[in-house]
Amino acid sequence: MPGRKLFPTKYGHFSPDGREYIIVNPRTPRPWINVISNGDYGLTISQTGSGYSWRTHAQLNRLTRWEQDLLKDDWGKYIYITDENGRSWSAGWKPVGGDPSDYRCRHGFGYSAIESTHYGIRTVLTVFVPNDEPCEVWMLELHNLSRRKRRLRLTTYLEWCLGAAPDWHREFHRTFMETEYDKTANAILARKRLWEIPTARGHWNANWDYVGFHGSSRAPRSFDTDKESFLGRYGSPRMPAALDKATLAKRVGKWLDPIASLRNDITLMPGESRTVCYTLGAAGSQEEAGTLARKYHSLAAAERSLAAVRERWENLLGTVSVRTPDPALDLMVNRWLKYQAIAGRLWARTAYYQTGGAYGFRDQLQDSQVFLPIDPGRTREQILLHARHQFKDGSVYHWWHPITEIGLHNNMSDNLLWLPFVVANYLAETAEDALLQVRQPFLDSGEETATLFDHCHRAINRVWERRSPRGLPLIGAGDWNDGLSAVGLDMKGESVWLGHFLHRILLDFAGIAARIGDHARATEYRGRADVLCRALNEEGWDGEWYWRATKDSGEKLGSKENTEGRIYLNAQTWAVLADVAVGARSEQVLNAVEQ
Amino acid sequence: MPGRKLFPTKYGHFSPDGREYIIVNPRTPRPWINVISNGDYGLTISQTGSGYSWRTHAQLNRLTRWEQDLLKDDWGKYIYITDENGRSWSAGWKPVGGDPSDYRCRHGFGYSAIESTHYGIRTVLTVFVPNDEPCEVWMLELHNLSRRKRRLRLTTYLEWCLGAAPDWHREFHRTFMETEYDKTANAILARKRLWEIPTARGHWNANWDYVGFHGSSRAPRSFDTDKESFLGRYGSPRMPAALDKATLAKRVGKWLDPIASLRNDITLMPGESRTVCYTLGAAGSQEEAGTLARKYHSLAAAERSLAAVRERWENLLGTVSVRTPDPALDLMVNRWLKYQAIAGRLWARTAYYQTGGAYGFRDQLQDSQVFLPIDPGRTREQILLHARHQFKDGSVYHWWHPITEIGLHNNMSDNLLWLPFVVANYLAETAEDALLQVRQPFLDSGEETATLFDHCHRAINRVWERRSPRGLPLIGAGDWNDGLSAVGLDMKGESVWLGHFLHRILLDFAGIAARIGDHARATEYRGRADVLCRALNEEGWDGEWYWRATKDSGEKLGSKENTEGRIYLNAQTWAVLADVAVGARSEQVLNAVEQ
Q1: Nearest by CB to A72, which of B202, B236, B354?
Q2: How do residues B64-73 score in pLDDT, each as one tens digit?
Q3: Which residue in A90, A191, A469, A530 is deepest, having the highest Cβ count within 10 Å?
Q4: Pick from B68, B72, B352: which is nearest to A234 by CB?
Q5: In this complex, is the C-beta atom of B205 within 8 Å of any C-beta atom belonging to chain A?
């Protein structure tokens, strides 16, 4: 059914092949964004054209300034178009926010495109991140739909961040930035002499290690890197003072409030089309910045890079697909959920609502299971990365920052168990028992390494050792329900859910140990599983399920005796129970969930 | 000379009596602000009417949202005025930023007033913080200068922060806020169930301890606390959607992006004037919020509070004055420098460029000396407060946060010495040697206390013990020049400046010890001063001053042998040298500085 709109609402629909989500009204209830990343460089882009860019870590190494505001959504990297009558609009809707005669935002796998028409000029702005290059490309197609010759000024605009975000002490930080214009690359370069991240010696008087660049495929007629001359004093990106000027101020150097703006003048005959290509990136050196900027002076190079991005995603997402009676389920499971898990969760680790950049010990291990049916080698890499972020006592960094390797070592009680959980699932998928013998260090072991099997054992053992007098695991600073971050800080509170989780892992690892010939450990794990099962059934179960009680009679929590044990039987627990067998009563659990 | 403009520039001038700085053009080169505080509650206000408010700590307990941006200066608490023709402007210029037919911003002691005229309506917006109340008052006078009856809508607007700033994770934090409208108080109330500051148990699941309120002296016709209905989706404070509506949406409760907006309708006959009074504050309870909001239903109460503010400042600033041949010096020394030291540095501890709220061990001790000729009891209070933020080993918190009492304990090498330095200056001014016997605890001493003399000794002794093999003090993580924060981290680098400073303090405390009969210590201090003096003269002086060399011959640092010892002879050192006698050569130093 070519041309059919899949799952249409008043704001948008999927494309007929399901490979794009197409927004047809820029005023969506909240910003609807695409998180685009190649695993190192990344950006977010909303249907208004707003968003931010980073390399490696979206908070420690953010390239452009941005403020979270779901209502205004007015921070980003923008292109203004001004016509011969002095009318200005934005290629991506914001910040000018006019009334385009048509508008579509197409979020695809690895790219977004915003199409709009203003005053007879149609533009298509396609934004993507090339595979394996620390930059993004903006391809701006312009089509003159009117019957007269049109003279257009194109003006780009972004504010440099060049390091840690949020840069709430921005007026201090900007004094460490310096810009220049590289004529051979048609590009503005930006550097910073301060990076507010801790160094090995404990201070943060370090250089930002990169060279920011913003280039154009056409030699700009003028440029500016000074926000004051660009916006005008007390001005606003909604309508910068510079749009009224024939040329930009060409200010570069130190002590500015540094931005990047390039100006191209374009003349289009009636019916004529042209494309201009812009780059933005964080290179490792001035040479690399120039190389990347010059590469995309070629529109053909940009087209090839975009095709390569599409191909990579097709290879990743096209590996396994299901067909069910529910086409919505197929659409989400076959491509979109996988895309979001990989691009948003594993590679970018940031978005709009929660801006991040760190690795969560639990989060990215969980998420990496998306690769099990696609490319299990990537799950394996994630397992080994997380194993290296474990301590010798089995505890782990709850999260850690790439770049600084600083992490949070807390009493969260479930995070460490996700290592054996995901290892068991990896083995179930791949049967690669040899992985258990791969050696990795601990955070506090120096050069000393241990097998992955030992890493898993230490995690299991640590949770086992931290049980209450009646044999239930302690919840500590929270379990999978990490909103319960204060109930167990005194190491008294228990988690029934954590008991279920540990029980499943003990059984799995009893099987694994038996399979690799470690019968002592297999016996130990089975014995522990039995002990835990009894404690769970005696202390965490009174023969009557809370949700049934509330469902059937409307009773509230606490209205019956002995309800403490049931506090963790929440939605998360139900989801996991469906996957966890608790001894003889597992069938009951599954039946309950299925109903 | 009544009416004479003192020290006029194109942007402004002092009032004839020197008690106000009057800005005549809202487009000053950068925001020119007044930091207004009563010692607990405070606000900043720029000549555009922008700024933020807080109680006790401008970062941990900020009442309203604000983003630092010296060019846009577009965050604040605003009043819109809309006339019968639908034209809107701002009582303080921003955010509408129109072209008033006249404009003046008068920054005074404890208040600011912005006067402007738009379309025949003259407004005077006077903003102040009452003495000893946790709130601010906005008195808005309206004058109809036109010849016809005018119907005006007044609409206030602010975004709640209610806790820690920057609230970069704002979309998470806003979900913990709740608003309501208290009809009897003509006021919006706002609460928050999360305060991202550490509690005694180490987590931050704590309530915000206050009730925010925003009230009006006239019963509002309508109100709103929802940014979405007020601004409109993807709207902007420059021209909110609500200004076009006859009534505001009256949305209150949870899950909003919470703001406060009150709407009053006012009719003014030709020549008629009216005043409306608004409050904003952070009360300790709903009852206190209501009491304060209702108090300022009375314009007379507001006038009385403003008069009391003026009186307090007159009492503080009018105590001592100098008359010199330079009226600019007199103007600054007699009132403005004292005002800024007290309001900005001691009470508010925040501003525009550097937003703060903490106490710097060094900073506020230094600043408290402003009170020595005015009200030395306040210097005394500051001395005792800082003594309580010292450790038993003599080291101190480099800074600490009121509210949480969390501090930074680092290897900065000069901070601790400011305690004996300021004590010596206090004694020189007051001769109150009894202060030395007042007992205070240390941070790590529990109930155990020690005399202030002992506190001072421990500071002196610690710096004395941390000297290099050649007898110069170690610079550690920086001395008074705290930009040199990495050169001495390995505890090898030396500070000649710190030696000068310690030498002066040793001599002062030798005299103090002798005066109070502690002759052993007096002898010890004098002996140490002699040893230090020899080391300084031998290792930190080569008979030729760097600044003279560069002044006379244009030589650069590093162009001569043995320049390492001279690196600290910078502008700060010169300023201190004028005040520090280094043994026999002090006269040379003073001569050099005087030239």
Answers
A1: B236
A2: 999 999 999 9
A3: A90
A4: B72
A5: yes
**Phi and psi for A223 in degrees, rounded to 5?**
-160, 170
End-to-end CA distance of chain B: 37
Three-state SS annotation for B361-420: HHHHHHHHHHHCCCCHHHHHHHHHHHHCCECCCCCECCEECCCCCCEECCCECCHHHHHH
Task: Report in angstroms the alpha-carbon separations of A530 from A459, A470, A505, A515, A543.
Answer: 19, 14, 12, 20, 19
pLDDT given for residue B571 in this prediction: 37
Cα–Cα dist B250/B226, whole Å: 8
Q: Tell whether B492 is within 8 A of chain A (Cβ).
A: no
Indicate the DSSP class of residue A146. S
Neighbouring C-alpha atoms within 13 Å toward the C-beta of B170: 25
Q: Nearest C-alpha of chain B: how many angstroms from A379?
A: 30
Predicted complex ipTM: 0.89
Tell which phi-psi region holds residue A302, choosing left (phi > 0), alpha (psi between -120 and 50) or beta: alpha
Q: Is the pLDDT of residue B138 over 90?
A: yes
- Cβ contact, residue pair A238, B236, below 8 Å: yes
- Does residue B201 sit in helix, strand or coil? coil
Query: Please, are residues B84 and B150 in contact by the beta-carbon 8 Å criterion?
Result: yes
CA distance B444 to chain A (A): 23
- Half-sphere exposure of B215 toward its Cβ, with a 13 Å CA cutoff? 30
Is A167 near chain B, with CB under 8 Å?
no
Contacts of residue A56, Cβ cutoff 8 Å, sequence gap at least 6: A40, A41, A357, A402, A403
Under 8 Å between Cβ of A354 and B169: yes
**pLDDT tens for each residue of B260-300:** 999 999 999 999 999 999 999 999 999 999 999 999 999 99
| Phi, psi (degrees; rounded to nearest 5) at A139 | -95, 120
- Model pTM score: 0.91
- 3-class DSSP state of A234: coil
Of A169, A172, A233, the CB nearest to B27: A233
Mean pLDDT across the stretch B92-117? 97
Residues of A in contact with B170 (CB under 8 A): 68-69
Write out chain A residues lying below 8 Å of B165, CB-based: 168
pLDDT in tens, B367-405: 999 999 999 999 999 999 999 999 999 999 999 999 999
* E strand map for B164-284: 177-182, 187-192, 211-216, 222-226, 253-254, 258-268, 273-283
Contacts with A69 from chain B: Cβ below 8 Å: 170-171
Taking CB atoms and an 8 Å limit, are A203 and B353 in contact across chains?
Answer: no
- Identity of the residue in B29, B48, B234 whose CB atom sits nearest the CB atom of A73: B234
Contact B235 A201 (CB under 8 A): no
Measured in whole angstroms, the distance separating CA B205 from the mean position of its chain's CA atoms is 29
